[in-house]
Specification:
Elements lengths: L1 H7 L2 H12 L5 H7 L5 H13 L3 E6 L2 E6 L2 H14 L1 H21 L16 E7 L3 H9 L1 H7 L4 E3 L7 E6 L5 E12 L3 E8 L3 H4 L4 E10 L2 E9 L7 H4 L2 H14 L13
Antiparallel strand pairs: 1-2, 3-9, 4-5, 5-6, 6-7, 7-8, 8-9
């Protein structure tokens, strides 16, 4: 947590995070141009601090190295500080801020539709470290009872064999199919690749089929879990992929403490 606060303390690093929020998956060169007149080396130093704090995840794509915003640490700061001490007041102020900024954006004729934002490269990347074994993490991801505790009450049914299907069900009687897809690659306890068809609203249904990859990498006595949601439309609705920070924070809390992370009632299906 100290590394996160240190990283956020510098306005240039905050600007870099804002730029990745605006357009995720950028190269060092693109970010250097955005931060002119800062040198390439200067931007590289700031990116290193952000990576060490877990706020930015870098991934190779061909000859390019792309940088993705990872909101998980910010979510953990929220869970640890804001929700505990000042959520009612903070939410009121943030809603006021959002309304004022929305009015300003509307006056500027924003080019994308309400509720959407550009997704560069059609990819969103999320990373979290969890103190457990790969086998324990795989079990939590694939066991329907445990999965429901950190995935908004959804029960995911599958035998997790390559080429098999899966369904995530919710609702009071677990009779609503909210997500469906195919297990494209299954390599326990390391990799799970699934097609992803979101069905919980007309907006997300219109986004079509996307893909979710779960990558588990042992690091000492912990695991680095990276979730990559890709093949997203260029203007993907944030509703499609915006729940991952809460899901992964809930997964970390469940494994490390045995407790469930509080989830806003509007997101619960059970």
């Amino acid at each position: 947590m100290d590394e996160v606060f240190k990283a956020l303390a510098d306005h240039t690093r905050r600007d870099l995070l804002d730029e990745l929020f605006r357009r995720d998956g950028q190269t060092l060169g693109a970010l250097t141009e955005r931060e002119a007149p800062m040198t390439r080396f200067g931007v590289m130093k700031h990116l290193k601090v952000l990576e060490e704090a877990g706020l930015v995840v870098a991934r190779k794509r061909g000859r390019e190295k792309l940088h993705f915003l990872n909101p998980i640490p910010i979510r953990q700061v929220y869970d640890r500080w804001v929700s505990k001490y000042a959520e009612p007041v903070a939410m009121g102020l943030l809603e006021l801020k959002d309304r004022l900024e929305a009015d300003m954006q509307a006056s500027k004729n924003v080019s994308w539709a309400e509720g959407t934002a550009p997704v560069a490269q059609g990819t969103a990347v999320f990373e979290v470290f969890i103190k457990c074994t790969p086998e324990r993490l795989w079990e939590a991801i694939t066991d329907p009872e445990q999965r429901a505790k950190f995935s908004f009450g959804m029960y995911v049914e599958s035998d997790y064999t390559p080429g098999s299907n899966y369904e995530a069900k919710g609702g009071p009687d677990l009779d609503l199919v909210l997500v469906a897809g195919e297990n494209l690659e299954v390599d326990p306890p390391r990799v799970l690749v699934q097609s992803f068809n979101a069905l919980w609203s007309d907006d997300v249904k219109a986004q079509g089929t996307t893909r979710v990859t779960w990558e588990i990498e042992p690091v000492g006595t912990s695991c680095r879990l990276t979730v990559i949601h890709d093949q997203l439309p260029a203007t993907a609705n944030a509703e499609l992929y915006g729940g991952w920070p809460m899901i992964l924070s809930g997964l970390k809390t469940l494994i490390e403490t045995g407790e469930q992370l509080d989830i806003p009632g509007s997101l619960q299906y059970s």
